[in-house]
Amino acid sequence: MGRPLRIRFYEPNTIIHVMSKTAGGAFLLESDVVKMRFLIILKGLLGAFSFKLVGFTIMDNHFHLLLEAEDINDLRDEEVLERVGEAGIYKRLFLLKDVLSLRRRLSDLSEFMKNLKERFSKWFNREFDRYGYFWGGRYKSVVVEGGDAFRICKGYIEMNPVNAGIVGSPEEYKFSSCGEMGEFMGIEGDGVVEVDECLMGGEISQLEDGLAFGSLDFIGRFHDRFVDKLKLKRLRNYKPFTKRKSFFSFINTRG
Questions:
Q1: Are the C-beta atoms of residues 71 and 11 closer than 8 Å to each other?
Q2: Which of 12, 46, 143, 217 has the greatest number of beta carbons closer than 10 A?
């Protein structure tokens, strides 16, 4: 089986669930100091890249981000250069004032995740005199439909510490979008998302291992857009989301 489809560029307002784990599942993110540094680095990069953070949870051995793509073309050239300069990234392109290349990189999810994971791992290894890989391979990303599908995904992300037995309710967990650090990361307080019983089912992996999550119409439009990059294997690729027949996940891979 080949690697899952990797989407790098998104239309504005597209919602993406992104997840990444530490190497071997080690609890390298366990300390509050370490989690805080991760959020500081994340916040700095969000100020440059064309992604808005709308949900997150930082666990001891992995993290979940819920991002919304923004339109990089809404920014003037001067604003693009200012963002890059403040973030201290792509210094050569910044000095050359190559705004066209910068716009492309700042709207590329792979570039965003590369900067985030590399910056953090270098800080961690330097801070704790550590060597070797910090992250356990590539990140995962799932395109999520708005509305109820978005609320289910956000609820799943914020329920991670509850399901892990760390806290009794999601708002008690400091390092999540509905906890204390939600305000620090600039996420508007919209309360705790009600958790549906379907979130307890085994099919929840679709929010991590799938390619797209939402209604069958949404899944169909996703397939139509990326049909040249996908190899269909009949309708079984469109998997019902537990008992909620109105939600499906596209789970196909290439190869």
A1: no
A2: 143
Q: What's the average pLDDT block by block, 10 residues per block, for the chain (255 residues)?
A: 71 96 96 98 98 97 98 97 97 97 97 98 96 92 90 89 91 95 86 52 63 83 76 46 54 45
Residue 203 · residue 242 · CB < 8 Å: yes
Measuring CA to CA, which residue among 79, 72, 99 is closest to residue 12? 72
In this predicted model, what pLDDT tens digit does every residue of 74-120 receive, in sequence order? 999 999 999 999 999 999 999 999 999 999 999 999 999 999 999 99
Q: If DSSP codes are grouped into helix, strand and coil, which group holds residue 91?
A: helix
pLDDT of residue 207: 74
**Distance (Å, whole) CA 23 – CA 135:** 5
Residue 239: both structure tokens together: 């998997």
Q: What is the DSSP string of 148-161?
A: HHHHHHHHHHHTHH
- Which among 144, 174, 177, 237 has a CA at the least distance from the CA of 34? 174
Cβ proximity of 117 and 125 under 8 Å: no
| Domain 15-250, second-level architecture | 2-Layer Sandwich (3.30)
State how far the Cα of 143 lies from the Cα of 249, in Å rounded to an integer. Answer: 10
The two tokens of residue 90 are 């792509």
Taking the chain, what is the end-to-end CA distance rounded to the nearest angstrom?
6
pTM of the full structure: 0.89
**Cβ contact 48:86 at 8 Å:** yes
CA distance 227 to 220: 10
Strand partners, 250: 212, 238
